[in-house]
Amino acid sequence: MVLLFSLFAGFAHAEPAVININTADIETLASLNGIGQSKAEAIVAYRDANGPFESSNDLTNVKGIGERTVAKNAERMVAK
Questions:
Q1: From the DSSP assignment, how many helices (H) and strands (E) are in the chain?
Q2: Which residues contact 21 (CB under 8 A, 6 or more apart)?
Q3: By percentage, how much of the chain surpasses pLDDT 90?
Q4: Which among 17, 66, 77, 78 could disulfide-bond with 56, CB atoms 3.0 to 4.6 Å apart, if both were Cys?
Q5: Quick one: which of 24, 23, 29, 16 has its CA closest to 76?
Q6: Considering the entire predicted model, what is its pTM?
Q7: In whole angstroms, how far apart are CA 19 and each of 2, 5, 8, 24, 47?
Q8: Angle at Cα 39 formed by Cα 34 and Cα 41, nearest 5°?
Q9: Which architecture characterizes domain 18-78 according to CATH?
Q10: Boundaries of every domain in the chain
Q11: What whole-number distance in Å separates Cα of residue 24 and Cα of residue 2?
């Protein structure tokens, strides 16, 4: 019983996966806080037209994505 509780508690506190904004698909990008389907599609379209992002802050170049959205997701995004 203790082992079962330990496993459950471990999953409850698991950190969300880090997302590479240069390789993530629309569904993965849409899982970010404040990024829905349409903004995720805009990210991929921008990336396809302009090349890879140099940093997650470059997402502010995508229409509809501001500094607050980037800041909310800063720990979950990389642009490697």
A1: 4, 2
A2: 29, 43, 47, 53, 56, 59, 77, 78, 79
A3: 78
A4: 77
A5: 16
A6: 0.80
A7: 33, 29, 24, 7, 15
A8: 140
A9: Orthogonal Bundle (1.10)
A10: 18-78
A11: 37
